[in-house]
Amino acid sequence: MDKTIQQMIDELNVDSVEEIKPQLKNKISMMQLGLVEDSDVTAEEVEKLVDFMKLRNEFLEETPELTGNFLVGKFQQVFDEFTDSMIQKGYVEHTMSFVTDLLKCMDARAELAKIMLLRKKYDEFDTKDTFYELKNAFYRMMNKQARGNLHREMFLVTGCIHTILFDLEEQSQEHGRGVISCLTDYTTGEQKSVKQFEEEEHVPEVKKIASKEYGVELQRRIHMWKSLTFDFTSPYVMEKMYEEIFSEKEEQKDS
Question: Can you tell which superkingdom this protein's organism belongs to (predicted)?
């Protein structure tokens, strides 16, 4: 029967220290590695794993660039460019939709609710100022969850990329369904032409749904997002990131 750490410590004395020390060391090492008690791993294998982790930590200490949320920072630059392009075209409400979805996916509903409660009216919420406030909250949450771990960064960034792409494709499909609905005469069941629809009286929001320009804008976003995030989804993204970090480091040394 395996002894607990406390039992081993209680049994320590001058005579037993040499016998208990390796058992105690192995037990603590398994805890550090997150291995369960009945794990089929030998003491020698545990020691090798601990040595490997030490080397990894030493490497990261010598290379602080790798623990600085480098990948998250790159993603945030891309997200800024993408959302700025929509804001310039007057689609602030759509940028709000993206960032609120991302906050919900990151389980940051408390941050979202706090910002929403500060806005007394809906028209106060749907503004550029509120978007930037939400975006900053999203970035803070990203940096906190990444915590300088490369693999955690990769998991987080790719998750955000695919969440946005899913939203973009859903918006495009919804637009297609909306156009069909607008061009359908439900009294006769026949399809109207776009020209007929435009000649009818409709509120601007409804006419915007059926416009060709809006459909082109939705397709532009999908293309732009895929183009901006292509490097992140490449199988060699980690290798490219390492190369970029170290090339920047060499340039700093030379300057």
Answer: Bacteria
Last residue of a domain, one of 44, 62, 80: 62
* Judgement on whether residues 36 and 117 belong to the same structural domain of the protein: no
Q: What is the C-alpha separation between 229 and 71, in angstroms, rounded?
A: 12
Range of the structural domain that residue 201 is part of: 70-254
Instruction: For residues 235 and 32, give the distance between their C-alpha atoms in angstroms, rounded to a whole number.
Output: 31
> Which residues, in sequence order, are bridge partners of residue 184?
191
Please say whether the dihedral angle defined by the alpha carbons of residues 242, 136, 106 and 80, taken in this order, is positive or negative: negative
> What would the pLDDT profile of 23-65 be if each residue is shown by its tens digit?
778 778 777 777 766 667 777 887 887 777 776 666 556 555 5
Q: Which residues pair with 191 in a beta bridge?
A: 184
Chain centre to alpha carbon of residue 131? 17
The two counts, helices (H) then strands (E), for the chain are 14, 2
Residues 6+ apart with CB under 8 A from 109: 103
Measured in Å, how far apart are the chain's first and last C-alpha atoms? 62
The domain total for the chain is 2
Residues 6+ apart with CB under 8 A from 134: 96, 99, 100, 103, 112, 115
**117 and 205, same domain (yes or no):** yes
Tell me, yes or no, whether 142 and 28 share the same domain: no
List, for residues 59-69, the tens digit of each pLDDT value: 556 555 555 67
Dist. CA 251–CA 231, nearest whole Å: 22
